[in-house]
Specification:
CATH class of chain A: Mainly Alpha
Structural class of chain A: mainly alpha
CATH topology of chain A: Cytochrome C Oxidase, Chain A
Number of strands of chain A: 3
Order of helices and strands of chain A: EEHHHHHHHHHHHHHHHHHE
CATH architecture of chain A: Up-down Bundle
CATH superfamily of chain A: Cytochrome c oxidase-like, subunit I domain
Distance between the termini of chain A: 65 Å
Strand order of the largest sheet of chain A: 1-2
Oligomer: heterodimer
Number of strands of chain B: 12
Largest interface: A-B, 120 and 97 residues
Shape of chain A: globular
Number of helices of chain A: 17
Largest sheet of chain B: 7 strands, mixed
Order of helices and strands of chain B: HEHEEEEEEEEEEE
Number of domains of chain B: 2
Chain lengths: 584, 201
């Protein structure tokens, strides 16, 4: 097949805002994956509401069997289907739209989308009919119906193929010279996500294929400890796909909303490489109090290796706000330390999503994650509510929030519709973030008292021996419950906005620069362009005479606060650990 | 000479491998040193700290482990609570606890300040050992024997909550650990628990 010329009418259209060439098939693939992601989000959100109203012991809504069943449904729909379909959309978007390129083998892309869809439906069927009550982790020897495992395998294979198509698209774009020089940093981040996706999905196959054979009775056993080790190379590494994709989206939202610049390509790209090299080993932190591994193995994998990935996140934690600060300063917002923040477009849901996502991911998710992933501290954390407390503040208020934020830009740019319920859209990031923050806080503090995760009844009414938690736990669970309701409200607001915009939204024919439009974020109507003398201003801000504070004094203050919070939380946990029985 | 001002959405022409600003270098340096401290804390705690998940680890046949537990329980049984034997092994000995859906077997009675080697394993599926109210947690996996040296530092009537999903009755799986002080008195800090002990020492 010969490559269609870039000017072929009907194959490419030119975006009137960004001037980019957008391939019709790529655009449709982005849309299909994004819409499916939102459907999965809806299922996951309804399950979330029922679950949180069950864990809130004062309400205790669901019966036990439906609690455990929906816990599995919630896990699969949120962590796998919502996030990975959205990431497929991000991969198609980054490889084609951002590079003005055509997609590699779009028909194969549709085949893979179909494969993932079949897998999704198989998993849903098995879960909803009670044939896979094994929760998200499906630790053997708990056994699910073979259709469940097969569905996951088909889904993973489809996603793996799309990742390979992403590489092929990048290669074609390079060869066809659709862009000059090195690929944009956002595409580099998406490439990182795709590479980690391959590593992750191969591990998924390594564990789910034997488990499928075991569930069919073809092989006799799957070792439960080996299962846990390899499964987490899927289960946790897939969160690193999210993280790389989310960081790429942070760079993208920064650029779109406030004209964030890349402070130093070397530093940011090196940080992405650190993710690729070291993040897979970090999965070992799920096995810190497992019997199968010695301290040397645990320490080597979770510290030497994981901390190099932590280093990468701390680097992005600097370069993202620094890029935003410098972008704003170059555009004239130079007042004091935080004039750039005061003058930022807080009413733009893309911008507020970005700031909330970065802050909660860093301050709550990041700090708690590194701390509880420490070999010994894990003794007081493993399988308590502190664990979901941690990962809701990473994957929900971090990743999901970033994905929602970028959707407010994708709706006008890719779906070419106004964002519906515009007033509600401006509010949505705040409602969602506050909800998840309360949820995560409630879970974290309840877990500190030893409240287990994945547990239907912590009043232990049918247990042989009574267990009574301190009344403080009731308060924490109430905070979790209220936060959960708020978070689900935020998610439903997002879903309503997305569905209304996509299917019934007002079509946009042209976006006029300089005129505010209802339902179009300010970053599109008033693009944050840099002045013509930006390079000279940049040199001046970098001048040695400005000292260490240099071009980004505000960011330096912010990361200093972050660092103090990190150190304090970390050593407080060691102190609490030292009060326990002697164990070794 | 800095790279031309550009966003993460633009491709970068030319060479972008350029020195970072001092503030960036310092932050990366601080972050790196901090990561090394995070690393050093773990070996340091193995050396100086009192709480480590090291243990004696080996593979074991789940049925053989359960039989070992039953024999151990019979040998040191001093009473019974709701059908589960209360077992008082001598300090310093190896003690056994089997997790199975949905029970912890047996009930252990330990002495405060004495060291035991607590062997944990499961008969059927994964379980989670969570000692309440101390909040000490370990993964219990069928086929693996996790021998942890434990020294109770406080007396009381403790619970073991299962905190790994093990089936539909998971939330009813609660066990007991009793720690007696120097006088040998059980300190029942949980009024809801009824003790039906016979032949207590």
């Amino acid at each position: 097949m010969t490559a269609p010329a870039l000017t072929t009418p009907g194959v490419f259209r030119t975006c009137d805002v960004t001037g980019r060439k957008i391939h019709r098939q790529a655009e449709l693939l982005v849309r299909a994956n994004a819409v499916t992601a939102v459907v999965a989000l809806l299922i996951g959100a309804i399950a979330a509401l029922l679950l949180v109203l069950t864990r809130w012991q004062a309400v205790h809504l669901l019966p036990a069997d439906w609690y455990y069943r929906l816990l599995g449904v919630h896990g699969m729909n949120m962590l796998i289907f919502f996030i990975i379909y959205f990431e497929m959309a991000v991969l198609w978007f980054a490889a084609t739209v951002l590079l003005n390129a055509r997609p590699a083998a779009p028909r194969f892309g549709w085949f893979n989308f179909g494969l993932m869809m079949v897998g999704t439906l198989m998993v849903q069927w098995a879960q909803w009919t009670g044939r896979a009550d094994v929760l998200f982790t499906s630790y053997v020897p708990l056994r699910a119906h073979p259709v469940y495992y097969l569905g996951i395998i088909l889904f993973a294979v489809g996603a793996l193929f799309v990742s390979l198509q992403f590489f092929a698209t990048l290669t074609m774009a390079k060869r066809e010279r659709t862009y000059e020089g090195s690929m944009p940093l956002v595409v580099y981040g998406a490439l990182t996500a795709a590479i980690i996706a391959v590593i992750t999905l191969v591990h998924g196959a390594l564990i789910y294929v034997p488990t499928l054979l075991w569930s069919l009775g073809i092989i006799e056993t799957v070792d439960p400890q080996v299962y846990r080790m390899v499964w987490w190379a899927l289960g946790h590494s897939s969160q690193q796909i999210n993280m790389a994709a989310q960081v790429a989206i942070w760079y993208m939202l920064g650029a779109l909303t406030v004209g964030a610049v890349v402070i130093n390509e070397k530093v940011s790209r090196t940080a992405f490489v650190l993710y690729i090299l070291f993040i897979s080993m970090a999965s070992a932190h799920h096995l810190l109090v497992d019997p199968g591994f010695g301290p040397a193995w645990k320490i080597a994998n979770t510290s030497y290796f994981m901390y190099m990935a932590v280093l990468a996140s701390m680097i992005h934690g600097f370069t993202i706000p620094a890029g935003m600060e410098l972008g704003m300063r170059l555009r004239g917002f130079t007042q004091g330390f935080f004039g750039w923040l005061r003058n930022a477009p807080w009413g733009d849901p893309g911008f507020s999503s970005l700031v909330l996502s970065v802050s909660i991911f860093g301050f709550v998710g990041g700090i708690t994650g590194v701390t509880i992933g420490t070999e010994q501290i894990n003794i007081v954390v493993h399988n308590t509510l502190r664990v979901p407390g941690h990962f809701h503040s990473t994957v929900v208020s971090g990743t999901a929030m970033a994905f929602m934020g970028v959707t407010y830009y994708l709706l006008p740019l890719i779906f070419r519709r106004r964002v519906a319920f515009w007033g509600m859209a401006k509010l949505q990031p705040y409602v969602f973030s506050l909800g998840v923050l309360l949820l995560a806080m409630g879970m974290t503090f309840a877990g500190s008292f030893g409240v287990p995760r994945r547990h239907w009844d912590i009043s232990f009414s049918n247990a042989p021996y009574s267990v009574e938690f301190t009344p403080a736990v009731d308060l924490m669970l109430a905070i979790m419950g209220i936060g959960g309701i708020l978070a689900v409200t935020g998610a439903l607001m997002f879903i309503a906005i997305a569905v209304k915009s996509v299917f019934f939204g007002e079509r946009i024919d042209a976006i006029t620069r300089g005129t505010a439009m209802v339902g179009v974020p300010q970053g599109l109507t008033h693009p944050p362009v840099h002045p013509v003398d930006a390079d000279a201003k940049n040199e001046a801000l970098h001048a040695p005479a400005r000292g260490i504070m240099g071009p980004v004094p505000g960011t330096i203050v912010l990361v200093a606060i972050f660092f103090i919070a990190f150190v304090t939380y970390y050593f407080t946990n060691w102190k609490l650990l030292s009060f326990l029985w002697k164990i070794g | 000479m800095l790279t031309k001002v550009h966003t993460g959405l633009e491709s970068v022409p030319g060479v972008w491998w350029k020195p970072a600003h001092k503030s960036e270098k310092v932050w990366v340096g601080i972050a790196f040193v901090w990561c090394m401290i995070l690393f050093a804390m773990m070996p340091l705690w193995h050396w100086k700290g009192g709480q480590n998940p090291s243990g004696i680890r080996r593979k074991v046949d789940p049925k053989a482990f359960y039989e070992r537990t039953v024999a151990f329980a019979a040998q040191h049984k001093i009473g019974e609570d709701r059908g589960v034997p209360i077992v008082a092994p001598p300090p310093g000995s190896h003690i056994y606890l089997t997790a199975m859906a949905y029970q912890w077997y047996p009930i252990l009675q330990l002495e405060k300040g004495k060291e035991y080697v607590l062997h944990l394993s499961a008969l059927d599926v994964n379980h989670g050992f969570s000692l309440y109210p101390l909040n000490v947690n370990f993964q219990v996996i069928p086929g693996y024997d996790y021998g942890l040296r434990v020294t109770p530092t406080a007396s009381g009537d403790f619970r073991i909550i299962c905190n790994e999903f093990c089936g539909i009755g998971h939330h009813t799986m609660v066990g007991r650990v009793i720690v007696v002080d120097e006088q040998g008195d059980v300190v029942a800090d949980n009024a809801g628990a009824s003790l039906e002990q016979e032949g207590r020492p």
